[in-house]
Each structure stands twice: as C-alpha cells, then as structure tokens.
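Standup, Tuesday
Yesterday: got the pipeline producing structure tokens again.
Today: sanity-check two examples.
Blockers: none.

Example 1:
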Amino acid sequence: MEKAKISLYQLFVLILLFELGSAILVPLAIDAKQDAWLAILFGLLGGLFLFWVNFRLFLYYPELVPPEYMQKLLGKIVGTILAFCYIIFFMYTAARVLRDFGEMLLTFAYLETPLFIVNALLMLVIIYAVSKGIEVVARTGELFFVFIYFLAITGFILIIFSGLIDINNLKPILEHGIFPIARVVFTQTLYVPFGEAIVFSMIFPYVTKTKRKSAKKIGLFAIGLSGINLAITMAINIGVLGVDLTARSQFPLLSTIQSIQVAEFLERLDVFFMISTVICIFFKVSIYFYAAVASTAVIFKIKEPSSLTYPIGMVILFMSVTIASSYAEHLKEGLKFVTSYLSPFFFIVIPLLLLGIAFLKNRKSSNQKI
C-alpha cells in the first residue's frame, strides 16, 4: 500500500463520479421500457446493500486491502488465486469502459480516427494520473466535481425551457407489473453501476483513520445520489425521445442534448455531453486501473506500484480494442456474458462468502456497532 490519505469529501466525489462513469452513456435499464428509471432505483437499493457488505469487510480488517484479507480468510494459495482473478476482472472492466469512451468519440466527432488512437490518448493521461497515486486522482476529482454538476444543472434547465419533455412517454407506470423491472434489476442495474462500487474496497484504507466511521454514510450517500441522478437522466431521455428511440440510440443522452433549442439561439450543445462523459469515464477507468495496479503490487510484493502503471495500462489499452470487433458485439458481450456470469460472481457471491467467513472468524467481536 502506498502512503496516502484521502478525505471524506474526496471519497464522496470519487464514488459519485465513478458511479456515473459510462452509465450516463448507454440506455441503462431500457429493457424495462418506460419504467427504466424505476429499475435503476430498485437496483440502487441492492447496490446500497452490496456497498454495506464490502464496507463491513473493511471494518473487520481496516488496515488491509482485499488481496491481503482474502489470503487471511481463504489461505494463501486460494486467496492469491482469487485476488489475481479480481485483478483480471478489474482490467477487463476498465478496458470495457475505455471502449465505451472510444466508441462515443468516434460516433460524436472523430469519424475517421482509429479507435486505438482515441483510446490511447485518454489512457496515457490515466496512466500518468494513477502513477502519481490515489491522492492525485482524488484531488483531480475535487476540481472537476463542481464543473460536472454545473454542466448537468445547466443542461437540465435548458431541456426544461426547450419544452422537450413529454410526460406521456413515461406512462403507464408498471404497465406489465413488477416482474419485468425485477428481471432488469437482477440482470443489469444491480451490477452496473451499483455493484461496481466493490472496487472502493481498495481505497477505504486510505481514508483518514479518525473519519473512517463516517465513511460508510458518505459512501451510501454518494451511491444514493448517483442512483437518483441516473434515474432522472433516464427519465429525461425517455421523456424527450420516447422508449423506442431511446432503445435504438447508442447514446441517448447525446440525442437528448442535441434536441435542445432555446430561442433559436442555444442549440447543438453536444460539447456539454462530451465534456461530462470524458470526465466521468476518466475517473471510472482510473479507479479500476488503480485497483488493478495496487492489487498486483500487493500480491507480488512490489514496493513501487507506480512501476506497474505503464505495462498494465498498455494491456488495458490493447484489451479495449480487441475485446470486440464492433460496438454492437461489445454491448452484446456485456449484457450476455459479463452481467450474467462475471458480475454475480465477483460482486455478490465472493463478497458474501468472505463476509460470512470473516464473521465466523471474528464472532467474538460481532456485536460491535455496524
């Protein structure tokens, strides 16, 4: 572990920007149709529970990061293998998010630019930031957080004044009952983006010791706020575009923002979308990347984690280009393979198993305040 400290506010900012990440890009939970915003909110409830599970594990071992307490709970061999699997998963997920970024820019502005070049430009910046440590990433988040919300609030006001939202597009609520929403929750929104907060298990130990008791409330609040923001975003997308167009659009928020016209003067505000998504994706990839680098350093006992940033960063960059031959295949792989098999295992099964073992090993202190 590096010698770093982050404040509660920095933790809040990192979690919020991470959760928004690429989730604002895609038509999240659109399989629930006009109830997509409800599927996001229900997924949020499950995400809050998963965050509590991971934070509870941290309370059992506040001075250890996951690769270390995995070895302590499961034994050195099994714990090391499991930690290595998480490293691969973090790298793979970072590559997927980086691919989302590249596809967005190619669709939006750089039609003739190779995907590798676009991804490489962002990845080089991320490598530099992560090589400087988690404190630098956290301080960068502080700088951009206010700017992101300024853009979001401004965009929301402009959409309202443009008169684009048709509330009828959100009706009828629960047209087919609760079961379609439940299916979307347990196959999509529970994992992406809310279950992904497991990556912050690598960052909890850097929170100032005197403020760790408040970190749980801060984390839950950040995830809750991000869920509400995503639900509002999807409700606006559906209200403006309708269910069919939102489902067909690769980037529905971009289509929504392109629809803004105020007094025949303010229009084509695509730059709002581009700046917001670039910033959010930067932090999502950075945190996944940092978790992979820090975990690798712990497993292989490397004293200088920064020495790993370039080789691991290059692997993530090449993975982002090669994991799928097209964006449609990339999305299909995410829905059919990642959320069906990988996400339940890494986000739910393993954390609950580790918490159960930790509880049994520490049952004498299990009556401490949660």
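Example 2:
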Amino acid sequence: MATPDIESPDRTDLKQIDHAHFFEAMDSPPLLTEALRSAFRRAKTRSFQRNTGLGSAD
C-alpha cells in the first residue's frame, strides 16, 4: 500500500480557472486545422515506421 505522502503520477492539480478551461476544451474541442491534420499524418507515419521497420503507412 502506498503511503499518503507519495503523490500519484495520475493526479494533476489545476487552478480553478485552468480547471474550467480544461474541461471546456474536453467537452467542446476545437475543429481540426489542416496543420493539425498534417501533424497527425506525420505522427502516424513515424509510428508505423518505428513499429514495423517499413518505409510508409500509405
């Protein structure tokens, strides 16, 4: 059993204003921009290459 003085890595303390903004973003995320879509494609390709040793996911 963990002692009470050890903080969990799964816990994050937010100030009240940060708490409100965080949960608003979770409830109503912004629309994806083309730059974000491009970043997701690059990350997917890198992840595929790293996990398979192959050249491309496409």
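Quick observation on example 2: The chain has a mean pLDDT of 81. The two ends are 47 Å apart (CA to CA).
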